[in-house]
Design a protein that fits this description.
- This protein is an all-alpha fold.
- It has 4 helices and no strands.
- α1 runs antiparallel to α2 and α2 packs antiparallel against α3.
- The protein is elongated and about 65 Å long.
- The protein starts with a helix and ends in a 19-residue tail after the last helix.
């Protein structure tokens, strides 16, 4: 019986690795234009015509964006790995809450680091964007943040489902 469980877990982990690898290959090699920015910022999805970027600004923005993606890709991969470890804990009979807590804290630290890098990138745009372009970006960002982080209605309470409660 234990061998069947171990084989099942092994198959699950192999499938999970293949999915992550396939996702990475698809978005980084085959379809890089469709890849999400690591901070999931929608800044680059903003209609370019609203900024009225000239050719030099477009080139600088593209270079800055590519550098940003290169800097945060290792952080994103670490987050994916840590989330995989948390998912692995869900398959265990005895959940290691300390490991889950450590992973969640590390994910939070990595996400904060990505956010800091995004802020630095935005500050660097001041070097080549005009004041009215910067205002458009910041106005768009604040409205986007309000839409994504402030729900219009409260979330319903989650039903308690806790067979392996976390010790206090």
């Amino acid at each position: 019986m234990k061998i069947k469980i171990l084989v099942g877990i092994l198959v699950f982990l192999i499938v999970l690795n293949l999915v992550v690898l396939g996702h990475y290959i698809y978005y980084q090699i085959l379809e890089p234009s469709r890849a999400l920015t690591p901070s999931r910022s929608e800044m680059m999805k903003m209609p370019k015509h609203r900024l009225h970027l000239d050719k030099e600004q477009r080139i600088q923005m593209l270079k800055l964006r590519q550098r940003f993606r290169g800097e945060i890709e290792p952080l994103r991969l670490q987050i994916v790995r840590l989330r995989g470890e948390i998912a692995e804990q869900l398959t265990n009979n005895r959940v290691d809450w300390e490991k889950i807590d450590r992973n969640l804290q590390e994910i939070g630290r990595l996400q904060a680091e990505i956010e800091k890098k995004a802020i630095v990138m935005l500050l660097e745009t001041r070097q080549f964007l005009k004041a009215d372009q910067i205002k458009i970006i910041y106005r768009w960002m604040t409205s986007s943040m309000q839409r994504h982080h402030m729900p219009h209605r409260p979330m319903p309470p989650k039903p308690p489902v806790n067979e392996n409660p976390k010790p206090n």
